[in-house]
Amino acid sequence: MRNELLNALVRIICNGFVRIFFSGSLLLVLYVESALAASPLPSVVRVDYADFNPLSFVLKKIGWLEKEFQADNVGVEWFYSSGSNLALEHLNSGTIDFASAAGLSSVLSRAKGNPIKAVYIFSHPEWLSLVVTRDSPITAVSDLKGKRIAATPGTDPWFFLLRALSEVGLHKSDVMLVPLPHSEGRAALEHHKVDAWAGGDPYSTSSQLESGSRVIYRNIAFNSNGFLNISESFAAQYPDAVLRVIKIYERVRRWAIRHPDELALIYADEAGLSLQVASVILSKVDFSRPVPGADDINGLKSAAPILLTEELVEKESDLNSVVERLVDPGFASKQVRAFCGKQMKQ
């Protein structure tokens, strides 16, 4: 009889403990899920738009980003970036949260100690060329020795020029580099204030079609891809915001591929270009493959040595490691898979 009472007492205590344990566990699970669902968002998302990023003009025009964050009372602010160099400066100073920049420009920024991440590819373009006036006697890169060449430091046209010179055995010390913003570089060339110009689109194509400027060198292999960059601190603090901005970028990218004519009209109107210029530029842009992959990483690693050759980074810089720390495909991969999943269900 005594043993039966003890056994009954043990069962009561154990059953009570189990109920308490599972009740507590359920509360813990609900708390964790609630915390994850309530991932913090910034009060405002600051995004750049740039002439060299056609998708950014569509994004700004259509207003999908504003609608994405409207229910969360998160504002969207737009900042114009005239070049990769300024976009990255604004990112590193905290002025913007999402910066459009050429891949090699991003590598340079990261190599100089700026903790940034390249998380999405908005284009695989051929946007660079070395340009001279129509009446120039210059016909090849080798003719540029001792000449005045306009270029924007820290941008893809600048690196394109350095790599083109290196290909024929020349260095930046063999020419007279004239640092000018893209638009001023075009004007300097057309007014014969420089002998050549390392031009990037839309300015290069505009100069060719509108002023008769002549290309002396093209090399699609020396063009960087267009990357969307964020700071590591923003990614850590607001991962949900990053995912949602990339989600809308991906929506715009897919729309652009399906609507090339509308894309050209919006790009021309918003960037202040003729429809002819906009159409020619877009014909040289590949909007596929938004997720940074092995080819993109290897391409940056192959291009990066010019930064060492021209002493733009410290001699001991491990640029392969820099590239690997820079490129982060995780955010884009997740959103592209989500879009593919939705399409399969439809």
UniProtKB/TrEMBL annotation:
Which GO molecular function annotation, any one, does this entry have?
Answer: ATPase-coupled transmembrane transporter activity
> Where does the record place a coiled coil?
none
Enumerate the subcellular locations listed in this protein's record, separating them with semicolons: Periplasm
Q: Report the main location listed first in the record.
A: periplasm
Which parts of the sequence belong to the Solute-binding protein family 3/N-terminal domain?
A: 44-256
What Pfam families does this protein map onto? Answer: NMT1
GO cellular component terms listed in the entry, alphabetical order: membrane; periplasmic space
Q: Which domain of life is it from?
A: Bacteria
Statement: the UniProt record of this protein carries the keyword Glycoprotein: no
Q: InterPro entries in the record, alphabetically?
A: ABC_SsuA_sub-bd, Solute-binding_3/MltF_N, SsuA/THI5
Keywords of this entry: Signal, Transport
- Could you confirm whether the keyword Nucleus appears in this record? no
By sequence similarity, the record places it as follows: Belongs to the bacterial solute-binding protein SsuA/TauA family.
Q: What does this protein do?
A: Part of a binding-protein-dependent transport system for aliphatic sulfonates. Putative binding protein.
| This protein's name | Putative aliphatic sulfonates-binding protein
Per the UniProt entry, what species is this protein from, by scientific name?
Chlorobium ferrooxidans DSM 13031
